[in-house]
Amino acid sequence: IRCWSNIPFLTVPLSRAHGKSFAHRSELKHAKRIVVKLGSAVVTRGDECGLALGRLASIVEQVSMLQNQGREMMIVTSGAVAFGKQRLRHEILLSQSVRQALHSGQSQLKDMAIPVLEARACAAAGQSGLMALYEAMFTQYSICAAQILVTNLDFHDEQKRRNLNGTLHELLRMNIVPIINTNDAVVPPPEPNSDLQGVNVISVKDNDSLAARLAVEMKTDLLIVLSDVEGLFDSPPGSDDAKLIDIFYPGDQQSVTFGTKSRVGMGGMEAKVKAALWALQGGTSVVIANGTHPKISGHVITDIVEGKKVGTFFSEVKPAGPTVEQQAEMARGGGRTLAALQPEQRAEIIYRLADLLTDQREEILLANKKDLEEAENKGRLALPLLKRLSLSTSKLNSLAIGLRQIAASSQDSVGRVIRRTRIAKALDLEQVTVPIGVLLVIFESRPDCLPQVSALAIASGNGLLLKGGKEAAHSNQILHHLTQEALSTHGVKDAVQLVNTREEVEDLCRLDKLIDLIIPRGSSQLVRNIQKAAKGIPVMGHSEGICHVYVDTDASVEKVTRIIRDSKCEYPAACNALETLLIHRDLLRTPLFDQIIDMLRVEQVKIHAGPKFASYLTFSPSEVKSLRTEYGDLECCIEVVDSVQEAVEHIHKYGSSHTDVIITENEQTAEFFLQHVDSACVFWNASTRFSDGYRFGLGAEVGISTSRIHARGPVGIEGLLTTKWLLRGDNHVVSDFSEHGSMKYLHESLPLPQRNTN
């Protein structure tokens, strides 16, 4: 039990100018001096007798890792009372068992009564053991730890404050981790009304206020308060409508309802908030998080320091716009309103957006020019990404045409009946298409993606969250503004939201209660990161676009070079560009093979030789490092195969199930290839570049999916819909269909209503 006397202290720290806390989570990675406060519920076991050794070891590992990165770590810890209670209970039981054995000849442990143990005695018995445990754990990481026991007078007496401050600074200078605790063996019993007093005075009565006081005294950058709850909630945790508060601002206390304190310790959540706000006012950033959850406790401290969305972050800077959670809720509500519109109204919005892309062409290109200039000045983007970032008049015209295609084809997308069944007399079942819900689309360096995806979301009645790369910020801003202008035609402006806050992609992927589907558009690394980070949210997309073209022995000379040139050179940065060229062995050293090589050289395509191809050559091009490579540039791999069967096996082993092509005049060989290659798109005598929603007549695409479930290949409107079942009855109950019931199942298929083909 932590208890301090109610003596107020001045808030002017020693030699401490009023600092400035970090404004955003992303800045926490720059924190050098960090205090980690371990609450009683974190350090102790559930029975409050003994320490949670697994959690403690994990915390020590994280603190050690940060210390070895050059940070200055301090720990304010509880646990002495619990550790001492375990030792004293053991001693009492042992003593009682010995006495009973002497008197009765046998131990009656089950009848023993354990007396109530006084907290200060427990602390005296537990402090040395607790510190020995910390020392043993830190030694595993070649780190020295030092114990500091403080009392009330250490803060009340000016000279003792100076001594404490000097001791801590000297320990930090020597790369030692100070472990600070109240000297519970000598503290007075609890006094009433000894909590934090106001905003200018702090009285230390528990480890929360102790940690806040030390953090400000030591000019700490970050205070991490670990407890047994995830952070602050807008209503008591566990209630149906309780929502975790991501960022807490001074003055928000009225929006929070405080529940009971943790199962052990003196500091409830209200005390933590007051201590956190006091530390924030003193220039220290604060995060309150859960240190007991088995799934996150192993990395909670490092996650916080890396700026990840963990717990509640205290900030003095309130953003001008809504939070991403609020944006997701707005998109949900706007999407439902959008889905309730008539198909003609949704089409009108898309037509309006298409018109705005051409009418506001100059403003769009001016914003895009700013992005291109900034990207070139910073020199961070490779040439393929710069090409993706660039917009032009022809691109905008193509976008507008694609959007009008979407509008024209979307008339009966939502609410379309795809199955009708008569279950029984007057009991009819329908399966109808409905929107998926809220989509999160994350895209890099492709501002043209924004209107495409927006139009598909509008046509399918989905709410949409867009997270674009900062390299396209100006372009995305104006394109989103035009999208919202078009949506305002029918009062559904909120349906499409652009995330402009400093949200990390990994944090967005954790919003499983707000987002229904994630669609990444970007590099293979981006897609892999999102697939790894998404917790409970399905991800639609492909991590790589390793597309193959197989040239068969029966290939037409006229077709080969045209198809290969288009597949590789028309837009080498595209995900549907050729990356590996498979050549039948019999074509080596033939005029056709020479034509292929000459064409690639003229187009300045760098060739990498596969292992088998290299073995046939005396002087070969550089041998490929991996046959599973997406170049995204004027480069490709050439490999040799002995048959169409080997080509299929190679594609299955090294491909990404995206798009693969055979060039041949032999129909039987072509059909074998088409039927056996297990990719989203498989073509015969056609360029890989046809793998595209616009070219498929879908108007546009949200991406190309290589997954096996739901949508596959270029994903248009149909891929953004799911279904629901509508059952219309008349006082029907299941018991009527039992063995002795009055009704029988019919299960008759009914004709579908006529589709609107206008």
TrEMBL record:
GO cellular component, as recorded: mitochondrial matrix
Native source species: Sclerurus mexicanus (tawny-throated leaftosser)
Keyword Metal-binding: no
Protein name: Delta-1-pyrroline-5-carboxylate synthase
SUPFAM superfamilies per record: ALDH-like, Carbamate kinase-like
Pfam family of the protein (one): AA_kinase
Domain Aldehyde dehydrogenase: start-end pairs: 323-588
UniProt KW ATP-binding keyword: yes
